[in-house]
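Hi support team,

I'm filing this because I wasn't sure whether my run with adenosine-5'-triphosphate finished correctly. The job status page said complete, but I'd like someone to confirm that the output block is well-formed before I use it downstream. Pasting the exact inputs I used:
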Amino acid sequence: MSSMIEVKSVGKSFGQLAVINDCSFSIEKGSITGMIGPNGAGKSTIFNIIAGTLPLDSGNIILDGEDVTNLSADRLFSKGLLRTFQIAHEFSHMTALENLMMVPPKQVGENLFSTWFQPSKVAKQEARNKRKALEVIDYIGLSHVKNELAGNLSGGQKKLLELGRTMMTDAKVVLLDEVAAGVNRTLLKGLTDNILRMNRDFGVTFLVIEHDMDMIAKLCDPVIVMAQGSVMVEGKIEDIQNNPRVIEAYFGSSDIA
Ligand SMILES: Nc1ncnc2c1ncn2[C@@H]1O[C@H](COP(=O)(O)OP(=O)(O)OP(=O)(O)O)[C@@H](O)[C@H]1O
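And here is everything the job wrote out:
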C-alpha cells in the first residue's frame, strides 16, 4: 500500500509552548486510521495542520505524493482532502437536499456571466447536481427528510448530512473530527456504517479523531496514539488497549488498567 498522507517531522509551537514535536506518521491509502491520545496531546493541532487551517513551523505534509505544506484548506479541498467538524456546519435555512447541492466547487451557475450567456449549461449542471444529491441522500439514509430544513434535523442527522456533503465532491481523503460527540446510539451506528461503506465502495481514506473508543474499535485500523505532540505508538486497537505506555499516558500509571 502507498501513503495518502505523510506527516514528516512536523513541529508547531504556540508562543513558548511546543505543542507538536518532530511528529511523523503516514496514513495509508484506503485505510481508516484512528487518532487517539490524552487531552492536550496535540491531536487537534496536527489535524488542523493537515487540513490547512493552521500553518506549521517546520516539517512537511505530503498528500498523495505531492508536497502540500501550508496550502490553504480551499486548495486542499480542490485536491480531494476535506474535513468535517465537531459541530456540523449545515445551512439551517436550506433543505437537507439543498445543503448537498451547495457543495460542488466551481458551479457554473455561480458565475453571473455563465447564468446569462450559458443558461443551458447551467441548467444541465444543476440537473446533474440534483441527481447526485438525490443519490447521496439515499445512500446516507436521509431520503425521508430530504425536504426538511437542515436546521430542524437532529444532531446525528446533521452529522450524516455533513458526511453526505463529503460524498458530493468525490473526496480522496476525509478528516473526521469527533463525529460521535452528541450523536445517539442508533444514528451513530448509521454514521459508522456509512463511513465503512464509503471506504469500501469508493476507497475513501479516513483519518478519525475520536474519544469514543467503541467507534474507534469498530472503524479504525491502524490507530495512532499521540502523546506530548508526537506519535507514541501505532497499531491495532487490541494491541494499543493493552499497551502499558498507552495506559500510563491516559491514566498516569500502568497499574490502573
Ligand atoms: N491556539 C492555541 N494557542 C495556544 N495554545 C494552544 C492553541 N491550540 C492548542 N493549544 C494548546 O496546545 C496543546 C495541544 O492542544 P490540542 O487541542 O491539539 O490537543 P488535543 O490532543 O486535541 O486535546 P483534546 O483531546 O483535549 O481536544 C494544549 O496544551 C493546548 O492548550
